[in-house]
Structure formats: C-alpha cells, structure tokens
Amino acid sequence: VTNQAIAEGTAPDATVVSDLSDESSVLENDPTVIELCQNPVIALIKTGVVDDTNGNGCADVDETITYNFTVFNLGNVTLSNITITDPLVTVNGGPITLAPGNTDGTSFTAIYTITQADIDTGFVENQAIVTGTDGSGTTVSDLSDDNSELEDDPTITQLCQNPAIALIKVGVPVDENGNGCADLGETILYSFSVKNTGNVALTNVTVTDPLVAVVGGPISLAVGQEDLATFTAIYTITQTDVDTGFIENQATADGTAPNGDMVSDQSDNNSYLENDPTITVLCENNPSISLEKTGEFNDEDGNGASDVGETISYSFAVTNTGNVTLYNIMITDPLPGIEIFGGPIAQLEPGETDSTTFTATYTITQQDIDNGEVVNQATVTAEDTNGTVITDDSDDPTDLTNNDNNGDGEPDDPTVVILPEVLGASFEIYNGITPNGDGMNDFFWIKGIHNYPNNNVKIFNRWGVLVYETDGYGRGELDSENTFNGTSEGRVTVQEDKNLPTGTYFYILTFQGENPGKASYNGYLYINR
Question: Which of 314, 309, 313, 416 is nearest to 364 (CA)?
Fold first, then answer.
C-alpha cells in the first residue's frame, strides 16, 4: 500500500507551512510504501464418466467419456484469464475469473471418443492443466487430480476388457478310392476357423488338437477378426476308427489378451457359439467272416483202408472278410464225437487269416465206413466292436461247387472226406471202357464180381437217365457175362441197342447178400469210342 501524509501549520505571522511525509527522513518527501503478502494458488480436479450408449455395462469403441473440470482459487488474490488445456481432448469453456476461495465446476467440459487401443489398454489415463494470472501479471498453473485439489494424480477411467476366442473345426474325408466313404488308410483334412469374439485384440493365437498335429500360427486377431486359412491338419484313418464307425474329437484355440490374460475355447463343428465335438462318419461297418474246413483221413494201421477207430484230422482257416475288427472267435461243429481244439481267437483284423488256432479230430464209426464218407460242416461265430454276432458255415476249399446256401456271399460247401473202401483181394471196379471190338476193355469190367452173384448194376447218363440195368452182373469166371458194353437198353431218350456216345456215366452197384466189403458202391464210368 503506497501513500503520503501532509503536515500543515500557521506561523505567528499567519504564514501557513506544510510538508509531504517521508518514510525515514525529514529532508525528503518519499511516499510510505507498506508491502502486502500475495499468494496466488490455483488447483484443478478432472473426472471422467463413460457414456454407455448401448447399455451393455461396458465401454465400447466409439462410445464417449465426458470429462468435468472443477477449478479452485486457493490463493489470496483474484485470478483472471483462467483456461484449461488437455493433451487428450479439446476443452470447451472459459476463460474465467475467480476470486480467492471461489470454485468453478461448470464452465469447462470435454468429450473423448474411445478407441480400440484404449480398450486394449483397459483404461484411459491423462491429466489436464489449468493456468491463471494474478493482479501483478504472474501466471500460476496446476496439473489436474482425479479427486483432490491438493494432489496431482492423473485421471484414470477404467474400461472393461472381455477377451474371448471361438473355434470351429471341420473334417472332410479325402475319398482316395472313390467309393463314397472314408476307409482305412485314407485321410481326413481338418480346417480350423478362429474368431476374436471379445472386445480386445488377441496375440499369440494358436490351435492345438490331441488327435493331430496342427500346422500354422501363431497369429494375432483384431476384435471381430476371423481367420479361416492359417490352421490345418491331416489325419490318417486307423482300424480302430473304422471299428468305431466315426472319429470324434475337439481342438482348442488359445490367445493372449493385452493384459496378459489367457483365453481359450473348445471347438464346435459349425458354430462359434457352441462347443460340440467334430464328428466325421466313416464307411458303414460291414462285419463279415469266412471259415474253410478241410479233412484228412489218418490210416493209422497202414492197411490202405478205413477202419473203425481210425481218425480224421480237420484244419480250419478263419478269415476276417469284413472291414472291422472281430473278437472272441469260436468254432462249433455238430458232428457227433468230433473234438475241437484251440481258441477262442481273441482278435482278428480285416483281411487277416488264422489257420493255426483251431484243429479237430474225429473217430470213424462203422456207419461212416458203410457210408463211404464223412460229410459235415462247422460254424464260426464272432463279435464286432458293437457286440453284433456274425456267423459263417464252413466251406470245403477242395470242392469247387461253391454253393452259397445262406446267401452271405461266401461258399458253404460241406467238407467231404472219402473213406478208402475195404475191397476184397480179388475185387476191383474199372471205370473206363473202349467198346471198339478189339478185345481190350470192351465192357464195364468189375473184377471178381462173379463171386457175388446177388448183385444189381444201374448205369445213368450225366442227365440222370437210366441207360442200363441188370441183376447178376458179370457172371462167369471172366466176369464177362451179362455185362455193359456201351449199348443202351432203351430208357426214355435213348433207343434200345443204340450205342451210347462218348462221355461220362455213373454207376450204382448193390449187393443183396454177401458182398466184397460194402453193400453198395457208386462212381463214374467213362466211355471212349
């Protein structure tokens, strides 16, 4: 404060005298100056509020933050030309003047538009600065605080981060043989579609699969970005897969959020919103089995003929003719008295043949000898992976008739073991004649048949037509009387006394009393002219 006082007085002669004051000398007239203490102080609080336009409870890209600024004059002098600047936003309002102790919370505002980078960071952080001028022209300033006029912390507006990832896995069989389905040894091409379904960018995105080695990656995904081509895998179909009938599995996608958090998702077969496993259907299961049975007569006494008590050894070849693995394979045989050894076969792969596990032994009976053969059929049973039981009747691989009696596509001829006949020492049937009058093989010779006169002979052509029949065949010491010389006796299609053509015929010889070892013989006879 600057001022001067005036002193006046009147002399005796009435003269008026005066003097301007001085602060320290009676000889000078300087004004008296009293210095007053000035303390200009300003403060700023900045707050931010997210404008949740879509009401989802989170800050999204292009939504805004409204900033409010409160200015405080904390000094003892009036401040004028007060302004606020902010490196993040354009501040609206001002300049203003504030008396000491006054506060302004309405003049200044700002709006900030949120970016993806802000959400990736998880918050928006910044500070504004307020400046003002006191009466002496001195400029004062303050960095903003978030809640106190006495501090200078930056204003931090938290933004919610929702990192998320989704994965789709699709399997396409490569039908290499063109049969319309996936077979053993063929491949499945897997493709993976990965999408960033969260609100922050993802890095180090990878795909793993317990079934296959996934090729490709790692990659980064922006928000909403989808990758359809980076990740692939190839899987080779195994027998176990074929047995099951399908391949089922899931892959996993992983990614890293900006804050270091890991996110993951199990794959779905067609949707980013679900997590169902990917199922690839293979060729339809076709369980099938084949059994071959062969028998061999064992001439234990070495006499060249079959005797009661001698045996037949059977061998079995089991083949998996389907496309799935078979289990618990067993063989049964209805032949009374047969003993089967070996088994069960625990497991048989498609195309595999087992010819060593099963054997059987059968003891020959008198009835078998009378029949001249042993005819029978075995049955094989097995189970597939689903427990379905399949069977096959045995086939005799030496019989080329190949009848398929049960319609399963596999031949089912019974196994026939011919038993050597017990012939008398002087009894023998010759099965070829050349009736040309040269005196050699001119008739059907049954050596020694004259010893068994109570006999009957029938001869048939290949169509089953009876062309010759007689009782008491081969009388006389040379077995040459009443014999067949290739001439028809006249039966249906063949005229009597007509020479029969070259070809194969069939005979049946029966005895009504004494016989050379059996009551009946049969076989083929060949006429060659």
Answer: 309
Query: Looking at the structure, do residues 25 and 55 belong to the same domain, yes or no?
Result: no
Cα separations in angstroms, 360 against 62, 290, 296, 305: 86, 18, 11, 21
Domain shared by 266 and 338, yes or no:
no
Domain C-terminal end among 158, 179, 197: 158
Residue with tokens 């709006």: 111
Whether residue 344 is preceded by a cis peptide bond, meaning omega within 30 degrees of 0, is: yes
Q: What is the CATH number of the domain that holds 134?
A: 2.60.40
The CA–CA distances, whole Å, from 421 to 169, 372, 457, 506, 521 equal 73, 7, 18, 18, 9
- Same domain for 395 and 276: no
Number of domains in the chain: 5
H/E/C letters for each residue in 285-314?
CCCCEEEEEEEEEECCCCCCCCCCCCEEEE
d(CA 83, CA 91): 9
Please give the span between the terminal C-alpha atoms of the chain, in angstroms, as a whole number. Answer: 165
Regarding whether 100 and 214 lie in a shared domain, the answer is no
Phi, psi (rounded to 5 degrees) for 118: -65, -45
Regarding whether 438 and 356 lie in a shared domain, the answer is: no
For residues 42 and 109, what is the distance between their CA atoms, to the nearest angstrom?
A: 18
| Element (DSSP H or E) covering residue 196 | strand 187-196
User: Residue 341 is part of which domain span?
Assistant: 289-418
User: Considering only CA atoms, which of 508, 375, 349 is closest in space to residue 431?
Assistant: 508
In sequence order, the β-bridge partners of residue 174 are: 187
Q: What share of the chain is helix, strand, coil (3-state, %, to 5)?
A: 5, 45, 55
Q: What is the residue whose two structure tokens read 């903003």?
A: 144
What is the reported pTM?
0.61
Residue type, 59: A
Tell me if residue 50 falls in helix, strand or coil. Answer: strand
Residues 525 and 432 sit within 8 Å (Cβ to Cβ): yes
pLDDT tens string for the chain (529 positions)?
778 889 898 988 889 888 888 888 888 888 877 776 789 999 999 999 999 999 988 889 999 999 999 999 999 999 999 999 999 999 999 999 999 999 999 999 999 999 999 999 999 999 999 999 998 899 999 999 999 999 999 999 999 999 999 999 999 999 998 888 888 999 999 999 999 999 999 999 999 999 999 999 999 999 999 999 999 999 999 999 999 999 999 999 999 999 999 999 999 999 999 999 999 999 888 999 999 999 999 988 887 778 899 999 999 999 999 999 999 999 999 999 999 999 999 999 999 999 999 999 999 998 998 888 999 999 999 999 889 999 999 999 887 766 666 666 666 789 999 887 654 446 889 999 999 888 889 999 998 898 899 999 999 998 889 999 999 999 887 778 899 999 987 654 455 557 899 999 999 999 998 888 889 999 999 999 8
- Please check whether residue 37 lies inside any domain of the structure: no
Tokens 């538009």 — which residue? 113
Backbone phi and psi for residue 450, each to the nearest 5 degrees, phi listed first: -65, -15
Task: Assess whether 318 and 414 both reside in one domain.
Answer: yes
